[in-house]
UniProtKB/TrEMBL annotation:
Stored Pfam families: Usp
Domain UspA: 2-148
Name by which UniProt lists this protein: UspA domain-containing protein
Coiled coil regions, renumbered to chain: none
Protein family: Belongs to the universal stress protein A family.
Species whose genome carries this gene: Nibribacter koreensis
InterPro entries found in the cross-reference section: Universal_stress_UspA, UspA
């Protein structure tokens, strides 16, 4: 598989995301590229020390050295676990924004996945619109995995893919099927309807089959959930099924916008504990 790229700004959430990415990289037997974009992070502090006497060096040099040490220490922590088979690591530090560095690095190493934490985001609306990761999500040509602060890695047994049957995205599901195959997980395609209606259900089921026939994976099922709030319907279903991963399309079509509006009014939903894999819609790139 192509390398996994993971960004860190040394916050607890981003560090948690790097450990999640590390586990995933070992399971997939692929390279992990850890990067830090200095323009997107506050100056780090290692310990409280009295002001040093001027050395005549540029002010930014000491800060850069601290960032590099933090990156080295984090990489060393990732390598400490006794793995059966080691993987390759690479670290990058650059004076660039998260968006600039992530886009350039994903293209340079031909990454198959970009992993980010969601420090401070209280709902999906904030993740997709008001965090430093928002611009990366909009522009990324590869899948993005958003890891919440409370998420810990565990083998994937149940993957829920929330879809809109009225949308026609063009998706590359290679990563999704690779993850599912690795853990022999079930992929459940989920559609939330606001009203309980019996008529038209057979047509919806046919749409499910047509929409997912290109997914080359045997353990696939479909479910229609009835709930006036899309977010609540997805959240309750994920909890009921003990889902390990939620998958969505990153393009904000009407269904996702409705979902995000719901997120804004909800607390402690799945975005606080469940990793979200965002698949890019390549149709919008045409």
């Amino acid at each position: 598989m192509e390398p996994i790229v993971c960004g860190t700004d040394f916050t607890l959430s981003s560090i948690n995301a790097t450990f999640y990415a590390n586990e995933l990289a070992h399971w997939l037997d692929t390279k992990l590229v850890l990067f830090h974009a200095t323009k997107s992070a506050a100056p780090p502090i290692l310990v409280s020390e009295p002001p040093a006497q001027s050395t005549g060096q540029e002010p930014g040099r000491d800060t850069e050295a601290i960032r590099l040490k933090l990156l080295d220490d984090l990489l060393h922590s990732l390598q400490k676990k006794d793995w059966t088979k080691p993987i390759a690591y690479e670290k990058r530090l650059q004076n660039a924004s998260l968006t600039e560095m992530a886009q350039a690095l994903v293209q340079e190493v031909q990454a198959g996945l970009l992993v980010l934490g969601n420090e401070g985001a209280q709902n999906l609306q904030e993740v997709l619109y008001y965090t430093t990761a928002a611009n990366v999500i909009k522009a990324s040509p590869c899948p993005i995995l958003i890891v919440p602060p409370k998420a810990t890695f565990r083998p994937l047994h149940t993957i829920v893919f929330a879809i809109d049957l009225e949308d026609r995205p063009r998706l590359d599901t290679a990563l999704l099927t690779a993850l599912a195959s690795l853990f022999k997980a079930e992929i459940i395609f989920l559609y939330v309807l606001p009203n309980l209606v019996e008529e038209g259900l057979e047509g919806l089921k046919s749409s499910f089959v047509n929409r997912t026939k290109d997914v080359a994976y045997p353990h696939v099922s479909f479910h229609i959930e009835f709930n006036p709030r899309i977010e609540e319907g997805i959240s309750q279903y994920c909890r009921r099924k003990h889902a390990d991963l939620l998958v969505m399309v990153s393009q904000l079509h009407d269904y996702t916008r409705h979902l995000i509006d719901d997120f804004y009014h909800q607390d402690q939903s799945f975005h606080t504990y469940l990793p979200i894999l965002l698949l890019p819609n390549h149709r919008k790139l045409d």
